[in-house]
Design a protein that fits this description.
Elements (H helix, E strand, L loop, with lengths): L29 H13 L3 E5 L3 H5 L11 E4 L5 H14 L6 E7 H6 L2 H9 L5 E6 L36 H6 L5 E5 L4 H13 L4 E6 L3 H4 L6 H10 L5 E5 L3 E6 L7 H5 L10 H21 L3
Parallel strand pairs: 1-2, 1-3, 3-4, 4-6, 5-6
Antiparallel strand pairs: 5-7, 7-8
The chain binds thiamine diphosphate, iron/sulfur cluster and magnesium ion.
Iron/sulfur cluster (SF4) binds next to helix 8.
Length: 300
């Protein structure tokens, strides 16, 4: 299980599409692109459980649906519980094949769905949980969540105010549950992303993904910059790429030769416009500390 990631070359990405073009995500939405990749790996035997989030809209109401897969919409706090029940129901009917995939935002994961997530992880429910993290409640107009980074502005922390608390470390919470597989990924490293999805597909039990998903209107970046900012998050050490096996073994799956300064990531995002150089220096220290801690745990 802790084996190597088998990287997918771009010409090996399945051609089948399960997320139709013309859906209602904003132009450049990296969450939609991540999920498009995911569906290609998982294929047709997949059911999505979607809690209240941008994907409730992107999936679309019937007959305007954008997924060529079954979708079950559930209340905001209950994504992991609903996914668990759906999987057990399918199994009771003799269907062991269908993958149940929970799709939730950071608000639905870090905040309102955390209790259900913890329960399902502790029971080692046989589902895949995808948290696409755009670092705020975007679908309702960008309210701050516990995933919003220190120093970011939002509609509940309007300029010149910024969020004064650090981002909750969801992977540390997941680590404590010692689930079979957890990984971070972004669309800027598609081979890494696809390899992790492929690996998760072969594992039984609770699998968790933390996807950093830059959001053009929420972050105040251009719609053609979501890949750029995904990459900058990795290159600055803000969002390291790794996988975690049973909460013990951590494998960095990409290691920049040297970290770029945090300022490169912060400077061009409108949500960080109110930050002073001193505040960025404080944030830089935090990134460096977290990076060092991860390097010490790294087993690759
Ligand atoms: C119990 C409940 N509270 C509030 C809402 C309103 N609501 C719908 S989507 C949403 C934001 C979700 O944020 P997040 O989970 O981060 O996903 P994103 O919108 O960023 O994709 C909110 C607050 C709701 N549907 N149900
Ligand atoms: S608000 Fe952000 S996450 Fe939501 S659809 Fe638009 S780009 Fe995607
Ligand atoms: Mg969000």
């Amino acid at each position: 299980m802790g084996g190597e990631l088998i990287m997918t070359k771009i010409n090996q990405v399945p051609r089948e599409e399960y997320l139709f073009s013309g859906h209602t995500a904003c132009p450049g939405c990296s969450a939609a692109l991540s999920v498009r990749h995911l569906t290609k790996v998982l294929g047709k035997d997949t059911v999505f459980v979607i809690t209240a989030c941008c994907f409730s809209i992107i999936a679309g109401p019937i007959p305007l649906r954008s997924f060529d897969l079954n979708v079950y919409h559930c209340p905001f706090p209950s994504a992991a519980a609903t996914g668990s029940g759906l999987k057990r129901g399918l199994q009771a009917m003799g269907d062991d094949k269908t993958q149940v995939v929970v799709l939730a935002g950071d608000g639905g994961t870090f905040d309102i769905g955390l209790q259900g997530l913890s329960g399902a992880a502790e029971r080692n429910e046989n589902i895949i949980y995808i948290c696409y993290d755009n670092e705020a409640y975007m679908n309702t107009g960008m309210q701050r969540s516990s995933a919003s980074p220190y120093g970011s502005g939002s509609n509940t922390t309007p300029s010149p105010k910024v969020k004064e608390n650090p981002k909750k470390d969801i992977m540390k919470i997941i680590e404590a549950h010692r689930i079979p597989y957890a990984a971070t990924a972004t669309v800027a490293h598609p081979a890494d992303l696809l390899a992790k999805f492929n690996k998760a597909k072969t594992i039984k039990g609770f699998r968790f993904f933390h996807l950093l998903c830059p959001c053009p209107p929420g972050w105040g970046i251009e719609s053609d910059e979501t890949i750029v900012f995904s990459r900058l998050a990795v290159e600055t050490g803000v969002f390291p790429l790794y996988e975690m096996i049973k909460g013990e073994q951590i494998n960095l799956t990409y290691e920049p030769e040297s970290l770029r300064p945090l300022k490169d990531y912060i400077d061009r995002q409108r949500r960080f416009a109110a930050l002073s150089d001193e505040e960025i220096a404080v944030m830089q220290k935090e990134v460096d500390k977290n990076w060092q801690a991860l390097l010490e745990k790294n087993k690759t």
